[in-house]
Amino acid sequence: MKQQVSITQRQPAAIATALALLLTAILLLQGCAPGLERVAPGKFPEELVYVRSEDDIVNGGAIFTPPKDSAKPIAVIWVHGWGVNFYYPTYVMIGRALAERGYTCITANTRMHDIGNVAGYRWGKRIRGGGYWGVASEEVRDLAAWIDFAEDRGFKEVVLVGHSAGWAAVRAYQVEEQDPRVAGMVLASGMVWAETTPPDPELLAQATRLVADGRGDDLLRLPNRSFPSFVSAATHLDIHNTPPELMDFFGVKTPNPGVTRIRCPILGFFGTRGDVGTEADLELLETSTRRQSSGPSRVDTVMIQNADHMYTGEEAQVAQTIAKWADSLVPTESG
């Protein structure tokens, strides 16, 4: 098991390209911007915190802590979607609402946060991250650091929530690690269906050539889009190399999918107002999982009423859904 927590600073208080582009389109169409969100003050302690992954990438986050007399023994780690970060307004509101319900919540950055970032430096070379430049398959190291951080804070178990493209990081982590500290996984408006679009051969050849030449940061323009869309050569190649058992995690079309290696319960949900998935997708999630020879101990699904992809205005409903489900994971005291 990876042990890489190294920094905790207290202060007051993606994966598939198609999914990332779809999220961007939704945000543009809905006019979602941090300045438009209604953010109420928090009622309980909040901290800015930091972790360092095993490959020396530092990520920031926030921890929302309930009162000790009402705190549950499981922490919730919320992993952001494409192009955003741990302090996106609706994430903050969900974290605060979870704290009100007794759950410590960590909203966590990974190296894929925002469209672009400087994740670190190696041998004098800048390491870029974010939706355009990050190598998403490396996010599992960031999740390991956050789970270690939660354990350092006294939590033996966590619920991993992957929002949008963040779900790809959550599923990849648990398939790879099968971490017993993960008590449950939550697909929050993530990918259910199989990614079957064949790669553009010219774009793939260009990305392969650029990476081989040491120019993985060079941007490729994705063709046939209704708005300008870019991705770096390294990011594009990493997405292309995603194993089929992860790309089609629930086994819609792929034998021996990643879900067969999961043992903890899974919760899945979408919003009813223009989200990237529907009730039919959740039904597909359930039926695909049930027909596998092995898999999670339980699968639950729900639609978040009146919620868009970012859950604007429905943060309390999201928190209540997660908290009620997580309550079933908390061992009951006997005697």
Strand content: 15-25%
DSSP, total strands: 12
Tell me roughly what share of residues is in helical segments: 25-40%
Which sheet architecture does the biggest sheet show? Answer: 8 strands, mixed
CATH superfamily descriptor:
Alpha/Beta hydrolase fold, catalytic domain
CATH class: Alpha Beta
Number of helices: 10
Number of domains: 1
Please write the string of helix (H) and strand (E) elements.
Answer: HEEEHEEEHHEHEHEEHHEHEH
Biggest sheet, spatial arrangement of strands: 1-2-4-3-7-8-11-12
Shape: globular
| Head-to-tail CA distance between termini | 34 Å
Mean pLDDT comes to 89
Low-pLDDT runs: 1-35
Instruction: Could you tell me the CATH topology label.
Output: Rossmann fold
Q: Pairing-aware structural class of the strands and helices?
A: alpha/beta
CATH architecture: 3-Layer(aba) Sandwich
- Using only C-alpha atoms, the radius of gyration works out to 19 Å
